[in-house]
Amino acid sequence: MSPAATATATDPAVRALCAADPELARVAAGIIDLPARDRPAGFRGLASIMVQQQVSLASAAAIWGRLEARLGAVTADRLTAQSDEVLLGCGLSRPKLRYLRAAAEAVADGSLDLQALPGLPVAAAREAMTAVTGIGRWTADIYLLSALGHPDIWPAHDLALQVALQAAKGLPDRPAPKATDAIAEAWAPHRSTAARLLWAHYRVIKGRDAV
C-alpha cells in the first residue's frame, strides 16, 4: 500500500466534508494525514482484496506473501495453473480457494472485464463484479475505491468503518450496512474520502497510528 499521501488540512474533499458534517470535522481534526490505501488495478489487486476477506490483516499478509513466493506474479493464468494442494498450502481456506479460482476464470474468459470497469457507472461496475462467485459488495467497493481510485465509494459492509462511524456519530450501537449507506449519502460525491477519514479514525480509537 502507498504511504499517507494527502494532508487532511489541505485536501479539498476533506474540507468539503468538514463543512457539510460537524462530526466528520471533529474526526478530521484528529487525523494528521489521510492514508491512501492504494492497490494495483487488475487481477493482482482484486486477488489481494479477496485474500483479505474475513481474516485479520496479519493473516492476509502472510497468505499473500506465500502466494507471491509460490506464483511469482499473482495473475489469473498462474493461479489457475496451480493445483488445489499448492494453493491450500499457501494458507487459503477451501472456500477462499474456490472464490479465487472463480475470479481467475472469470477474468481469463472475459466474463469479468477488469479493464472495462473504470468506464462504467458505480452500480454497473458493482453488478459486474458481484456476478462472480465469491465477490460481494465489500470486495467490489474496496476494489473500486483503492484500485481504481473512484472518489465516491462507500464500503458499507466494512466492519472498521461501522465501528468508526458509531464512535464519530455517538451512536448507541454499531450501525448496519443499510444505516451507514443512509448516513453516507450526505457525503456524496466524496464518500471515498469519508471512508479514508473513518479508517484513520478507527486506528485512532483503537490506539494505533492514525496513518
TrEMBL record:
EC number(s) given by UniProt: 3.2.2.21
Superkingdom field: Bacteria
Annotated transmembrane regions: none
Positions of the HhH-GPD domain: 51-204
InterPro entries: Alkylbase_DNA_Glycosylase/TA (IPR051912), DNA_glycosylase (IPR011257), HhH-GPD_domain (IPR003265)
Signal peptide limits: none
Catalytic reaction list: Hydrolysis of alkylated DNA, releasing 3-methyladenine, 3-methylguanine, 7-methylguanine and 7-methyladenine
Keyword annotations from UniProtKB, A to Z: DNA damage, DNA repair
Gene3D superfamilies given in the database record: 1.10.1670.40, Hypothetical protein, domain 2
Leading EC class: hydrolase
Pfam families, sorted: HhH-GPD
CDD domains for the chain: ENDO3c (cd00056)
DNA repair among keywords: yes
Matching SMART domains: ENDO3c
Protein name: DNA-3-methyladenine glycosylase II
Originating organism: Marinibaculum pumilum
